[in-house]
Fold these 3 entries.
Entry 1:
Amino acid sequence: MSTTQRDASKGALLVLFLVTMIDLIGFGIVIPFLTYLVEDLADSQGILEVGIWVGILMTSYSAAQFLFSPIWGSISDRIGRRPVLMIGLVGNTVFFTMFGLANTLLIALVARFLAGVFNGNIAVARAYIGDVSTPKQLATRMGLIGAAFGLGFTIGPFIGGELSDPASKWSTFESTIFETYPYLLPCIAASVLSFLSLIVAYKNLPESLPTELRTKKSNLNLLTRFKSSSKDITSTLFSGSISVVIWMTMLFVFGFTIMHAVFILYTGMDISSGGLSFNEAQNGRIFAVIGIAGILTQGVLIGPLSRRFGSRGLLPISCLITGLGLTLIPYTEPEYAFIQLGMVSILIAVGNGIFQPSSSTLLTTLAKDNGMELGVVMGAQESVSAFSRILGPLTGGFVWVLTVNKSAPFDYHTAFHLCGLLMVFAAIISLKIVKPEDNSSEE
C-alpha cells in the first residue's frame, strides 16, 4: 500500500454499506404503492393520465441520478469523499419524508427527483472503496457494495408494501396524519434509516482522499462545475479500456432492467395465455430469492472467484450466465413454476452478483493505471447505468405491448430474448478490454 493510500476501518466499510443500501431502498420503496399514490393524487386534481404520471415518477429518480452522479463524483475529487456522502444522507432524510407528505403530483415529482439527486452518490462510495483498498482487497470490498445493493432492493419493496396505508391495518394509526397521508410511514422509515446512517457516518467515516491528491477546482460555481464534469465524462467515455467497461455496463444494465418491466407482466398473465397467474405474494417470494442469492454471491463468493479467475475473466462469464437466466424466464412450466423460476432467478442473481463488483473493480484498476480521477470515472459509470435504468423499462414495456398478443417467434417471449441478446453483446464487448498492467488484483 502506498503512503497516500489508507486502509478502511470496519466502521467506514459499514457506512459505505449503509449508504449504498439506502440508495436502493429509496429506489425500491415506492414500487408497491406508487400506482395507488398517483391514482389518489390524480383523482383529487382531476387528472386522468395516471399511467403517464406513474412512468414520470419512476423515471425521474433514475433521470436525476443520470444527471448528478458524475457531478457528485467530480465534486468528491475536489473536496473529498466524506462531505459528499454526508450531504447525500442529509438529502435522503429530507426528501424521502417530503415525498410521503406530497399532496400534489408536482410536489411528488419534485421530491422524487431531488431524492434521486442526493442518491447519486453510489459512485462516490465506490470511489471511496478505491481510495482505501489494496488491489487484493478491491474485488471483495466492491462485492460488499454489491451485497448492499441486493439487500437494499430486497428491503425497499418490503418496507413500501408492509407499511403502506397503516391506518387500514392497525387501529393505532387511525385518525392520525398517517390516515391523511397513507404512504408517509414507509417514507419516514426510509428517512430514519438515512438519519441513523448519517450519525454512524459522522462518527465512523474518516476522509479517504488526502488533501494532496485532490484536484484544485473546488472554487468553481455549479454551472462551471457541471460543464467541467461533463467534459471529463465525455473524455472518459472514449478512453480505451475504461470506455469499453462503461459501455459494456450500459448494455448489461439495459438488458437487466428490461426484465424489470416485463417480469411481473409475464408472471401475472393468465396460464391460458402462457403466463403463470402469480399474485403479489408469489412475485415477492421470487424477488426475495433474487435478493438473497445476490447477497450471498457478492458478499461471499466474489472474493474467491476473483482470485481464481480475475475480474476481467469473470465479466463475459457473468454476462452469459445472466443472459441465460433472463432468456429462460418465459419457458417456466406452471405446474413447476416456483421451482423452475427459483432456479432461473438464482442464475440471474449469481450472474448479476458477479458482474457488478467485477466491473467496478476492473474500472478502478484501469482508472488508477491511467492516472484518471476515480470520482469522475465512477460517476461516468453510474450515470450511464442510470440512463440504462431509464431506457430499459421503457423499452421492455414497448416491446411487450407490441408482441404479447402476437404469434411466435415474436410473442411474449420476445422481450426476454432481447434481454439475452443484449447480454451476449455485453460479453463480446468485454473481450475487448485490455488486461490492466498491474495484475495484482487479478491473481
Entry 2:
Amino acid sequence: MAMVYNWQLGRAMTFPYDEKHPRRQFAFVFNTNRCIGCQTCTMACKSTWTFSKGQEYMWWNNVESKPYGGYPQHWDAKLLAMLEAANPGRQSWNAATADVGSKPYGAFEGKTIFEAGPTHVGPEGAQVALGYLPTDAEWRHPNIHEDTAAGGRWNEGQHGASAQLPEHRVWFFHLARICNHCTYPGCLASCPRQAIYKRPEDGIVLIDQERCRGYRKCVEGCPYKKSMYRGTTRTSEKCVGCYPRIEGKDELLGSDGAPCETRCMSACVGKIRLQGLVAIAEDGTWSHDPANPLYFLIRERRVALPLYPQFGTEPNGFYIPPRWVPRGYLTQMFGPGIDHALEQYSCPDRELLAVLQLFRTQRQILFRFAIERGPKVAEIPVILPSGRERVQEIYNDTVIGFNKFDKEVVRITIEEPTFERLKEHHLNSI
C-alpha cells in the first residue's frame, strides 16, 4: 500500500497505487436546496446511456429521497455500519485542526475504506477496499420511499414547529447522485484486472471493456455503488461523464470545441447543477483559481461539501447541504464543514449570490466568471442557523461566465428583467 494525501480528510492515507493526478479534474456542485426530485436528470441519462438490454436496472444518475431512500437500498447505511464495526467508536473528526488551505474540514481520525479493508477477510482473502455486493432486491427501486419524511408523531400544538428553521422536526430532501469520479476511486483500487483508469486530461473514471472480466470487485469496492454489473455482456459499466461533451466533440451542441456539460447537468429543471473542470497541481492540490466557479464555491467559500468524505475516495462531487435537515445527519453525510456552509448559503454575500446565479444558465462549461457591479436594491434581515441576525445587502450585479476559450457564454443579473408582450401581437399578453 502506498501513502497518498487526501485534502478532504486533512491527512495522508493508504491506497493501493502511488499518487498520480490528472491535469484537470471533472467536478460538479449540486444544490440540494433547489432539487424538486423530478427525475428529469435521471431520464436524460437513462435515454442516452442505459436504454439497452441488460441495463434495465442501471441508473447511472439517480435522485433518492433521504433519509430512507437509496439506490441500491441502504448503500450508505450499510457501509457506515461496516466501518464502525471495523473501528468501533473511533470514526470521528478533529475539526479543531482545520486549515483553509491543506485541510479545510479538519482531520478525520477514523479509518477509510482502504484502511479498514484488510480487517474484512472473506473466502478470497482480505479486501482492498471495504465493501459489499448488494442483493438483487436492493437494486429494484431507484427511489424507494420517495418523498417519505422522517420525524415523530404529530402532537397537539406542534404543527408550527415542523416548519421552523434551522431544523425541521419532520423532514426529507432529495439527493441527486452520479459517479463522483473520485481522486482515489474504490472501484479502481479493487479491480484485480486493472481495467479501471482515470483519464489524465480530465480525471474521468472509465472501465476498459476489453480488460474487464466481470468479477464485480468494482461493484463491491465502490462505496457509492456507481459501478454496475451487466449480465448480458458479463462486464461492469458506469457513468462515463459524457466525455464526448467534455472533449467538446458533441456536434449537436455546435460548441466549436468548447467543453459542454453532461446530459444530466444540462437537463436539470430545478437548476441545481453546476459542472466544471478544475486545474490540478502536480502534488494533487487544486491550483489556486478563485475565478473558477467551482473553485470559488468549494475551496474559496466552502459552501459546497463532499459526499461522505470519510470513505476516503476524495469524491469530486460536492453538495450545498439542505438548510432544514438535522445537523447531526448532515455532519455524518457531508463532514464537519456543515455549519460554515449553511451560514454562507443562508446569507450569501455579494460575490457568492452572483455565482449562485450561474447554475444551469448555459450548456458550456464555465472556466471563469466576472462580476459587473450594480446598484443596491435591498437590505434584508436574516436569521442565521446559529441564531445570529445579519443584514443581507443585495446588489443588482451582473455575473458573466466564460468558456474554455475565454469567450463570454452567459450574462445574467441578480434581478432578472421582466418583459411585457404587446397585446397587438400576442393573444395571451397581460
Entry 3:
Amino acid sequence: MGKKPEEKDLPWVEKYRPMSLKEMAKPSAKLNNKKVDLADEIIDFIKNYKKDGEFKAILLEGPPGIGKTSIVYAIAGDLNMKVIETNASDTRTQKAIHRKLDEASKARDMMDFLQKSRNKIILIDEIDGIYGVTDKGAVPTILEIMKNSEFPIIMVANEYKKTLNPIYRSVKKYEVQPLADDEVIKILKNILKRENLTGFKPKDLVKIVKKNHGDLRASINDLQGLMQGGGAIDSIEDIQNLQRDTSEVIFSLIRTLFTEVKTLNEARNLLDKSDVDYSLLYKWVNENLPKYINLNDELSDAFENLSLADQIFGRIRTYQYWALLPYFFDLFGGGVALSKKRSYIPGFVRNTFPQMISGRVGANKLSLAKKLEEEYEISSIEAVRTEIPFLKLLASMSIKKKKEISEWLDLDAKEKKLLSK
C-alpha cells in the first residue's frame, strides 16, 4: 500500500487517457444547432483568447463519460499548456471559488516562468453542480473571474440548468455528442491489443457499448472488469451479468470492511486485494455506510474521512499523483471503517446500488434534494449522496424526530414516505 501503483495496476481509464488529439476519438458537437469541429473550435478559442474579446469562456455540455474533459487535456498537451482544474460542485460559494480560481486566473507560478511557453487553461468541471445557490455569490463570482482572467476558461457540464442562464449568456455553449458506437469499439479493441489480451468476441464488445449508451469511460471500466487477470470471456452472459456480479463482490467487501475490520492494516489488506474500480467503490461506501454506523458523531467522522479521501483522489486523477493513493486508501478504508467505535454490529444489511450511478434517482428524492439546496450550500448530487441518507437515519430514531425534519423542510406526503424507506 505504501508504493506508487505500477502502470499495470492503474485503472484503464487513467492508463489510456489521451495526452494528444492524435490519441483520441474526438467527440462531435453543435453550436447553435450547427455541427462544428469541437477540437478546432477549442483551439481557436485558446489561441485567439483576449481579455476584451466577445466571449470570456466556452462551455462543453453533454452526457458524462463522452470525452469533454479529455479533449481539453489532450489539446493542452498538444499546445504545451497547463490545465488548472476545479470541480464547481466542490467550490460552490463565493469565497471557495475565489480561493480556488482567482489567483490561478491571474498569476503565473515559478514553473511558468521557467517554461515561458507553458500558459494556462482554467477548467471548471461540473459547472451545473452550483445551480440553486446563485444567491450565495457563486455565479456572479464566476462571471467576475471570467471578465478579469488572463487565461482562457473552459467549463464542462452534464446538463442544462436554468439558474445558470447568466453564465450561458456570456459563453459559447457547445452541445457535445456521445461517440458513435463504432468509435468506442475501436478504442476498446486498441486497449485489448495494447494489453495483449485475446479471445474477446466482437459481439461482446458491441454488447458492452450498447449497455453503456455512449459512455466511453463506463465501457472501458466494464472491459477492464471483465478482463481483469487476463482471462478471456467465454459467454455474452458475463457482460449481461456484470453489474450483478460486481454488486455481489462489493456487497461482500463492504460488509467485511464495516463488520470485521479492526485495524488500519486489515483495511489496507482488504482493499489491496480488491479489483473494483476505486471511484466505483467510493460511491458504494458513500451510499451504504449509514446502514453500518448508527451514532451521529461516528457517522460525522466517517463522512468527513470519506470527503477527504475524495479530495485526495481528485488530486490523483487531475495531476497523476499516484503516490498519494496509499493516503486515499487509509482515509477511504481505515478512516471510514474505524470511525465505528460504539455502533452496534448489524445483522443482515441490504446494501443498495448507488443511486447516482444507477440513474434511478426518483422524483421524490430529487424534490427533497432541491429543498436541501435551499437550506445549505450544496448541490443536488451531494444532497442525494450524503444528506438524504443522514436525514433518513435521523428520522428512524423517533417519530418526534421525523416530524421535526418534516416541518423544518415542509415535506409533502411522498417526501415524508421517502424518509421511512
